[in-house]
Amino acid sequence: MGLIAWWVVGGVVGGVVGLGAYVFTHRESFDWREAALWTAGGAVVGATLGAGAQWAVGAWGTRVAMTAGAATSATGMALRSPAGARTILWLEEEFTRVEHIMAPKHAWDQLINLSGNALQDYRAIQPFLQQVIESGSKPEVIGMTRQGQRILQFVGKIKGETVVVRVIELSENLYQISNAFVKRLP
After folding, report:
1. Dihedral, CA atoms, 79, 85, 88, 89, nearest 10 degrees?
2. Predicted confidence (pLDDT) at residue 14 exceeds the cutoff of 90
3. Domain locations in the chain?
4. pLDDT band at 157 (very low <50, low <70, confident <90, very high)
5. CB neighbour list of residue 53: distance below 8 Å, 6 or more residues apart
6. 68: Cβ contacts below 8 Å, ≥ 6 apart
7. How far is CA 53 from CA 9, 48, 67, in A?
8. Which residues neighbour 34 within 8 Å (Cβ) at sequence distance 6 or greater?
9. Residue 109: which residues within 8 A CB-CB, separation 6 or more?
10. How far is residue 76's CA from residue 27's CA, in Å, rounded to a whole number?
11. How far apart are CA 98 and CA 74, in angstroms?
12. Phi first, then psi: what are they for 136, rounded to 5°?
């Protein structure tokens, strides 16, 4: 019922607006058939806008829910982590970024046999990313986000390969993966 409500409400409002516009512009030459066409046209436009609004609010609501969920998880993980431990927020909800990290140019096939499923392969490289971040090496600051958070780069050796992991520092020892790749030899 809730899924239909947006376009139904939009259609009703659009129909009323269409009829009102016809009545206002055709006071002297009112015709019920034309009024019905204007009402139907308004209903179609209103329903379309209602469906678009439903999609926009749904997408926005999903993003807000994901952000709130990530923040809650991050807070919980940070509270459970021993002092000095590095906590990592993975990107599994952000499939576009996962696909970017798993792109062929990032050379993960030098470390693992890729399955072709980006999310499955991303989960397979997570222990390597975590190992590089937790290696104790001091990260290099390579930039800042628009929100003023530092972008850090960790570099480590895994199975003889140089792995680069870039993170956004959300707070001390709380990182969100930004990018990661196996450094190709020249």
Report:
1. 10
2. no
3. 2-71, 83-182
4. very high
5. 6, 10
6. none
7. 11, 9, 21
8. 22, 26
9. none
10. 65
11. 19
12. 90, -10
- pLDDT recorded at residue 184: 76
Residue 7 CB contacts under 8 Å (≥ 6 apart), including other chains: 47, 48, 50, 51, 54
- DSSP-assigned letters across all residues of 141-172: EEEE-TTS-EEEEEEEEETTEEEEEEEEEEET
113 is written with which tokens?
């046999």
Q: Where are the alpha helices (DSSP H) in the chain?
A: 2-25, 32-80, 95-101, 118-133
Q: How far apart are CA 83 and CA 164, in angstroms?
A: 25
Q: What is the pLDDT of residues 99-141, one digit of tens each?
A: 999 999 999 999 999 999 999 999 999 999 999 998 867 899 9
For residue range 41-91, list pLDDT tens digits in order. Answer: 766 766 666 655 555 555 454 444 444 444 444 444 444 444 456 788 888
